[in-house]
């Protein structure tokens, strides 16, 4: 997952409180594309009437600039990216895994797992 909450485990009430009361902040790492961050910001607008999809539903999301080069009619024919099997790693401290997610040529993020 490109972005997620901090490692602490939050209760549902604490998570809801964070969503409602806190401003959205992206961490310095992993680096994400500006388009990906903009898309996430638009989905997480607190006022429902201003949120992406509030006017035209999923059509509005599909037409968003982040997906401009994606052919939705052929999406089911697309080959998904290969997922890493973390069981293959021996946990050596010097081992690093570089993860990079790209959708339709748009780099979403890149980060290292130490």
From TrEMBL:
Keywords: ATP-binding, Kinase, Nucleotide-binding, Serine/threonine-protein kinase, Transferase. This is non-specific serine/threonine protein kinase. It comes from the Eukaryota. Its EC number is 2.7.11.1. It catalyses: L-threonyl-[protein] + ATP = O-phospho-L-threonyl-[protein] + ADP + H(+); L-seryl-[protein] + ATP = O-phospho-L-seryl-[protein] + ADP + H(+). GO terms for molecular function: ATP binding; protein serine/threonine kinase activity. The keyword S-adenosyl-L-methionine does not apply. PANTHER family: FLIPPASE KINASE 1-RELATED (PTHR45637).
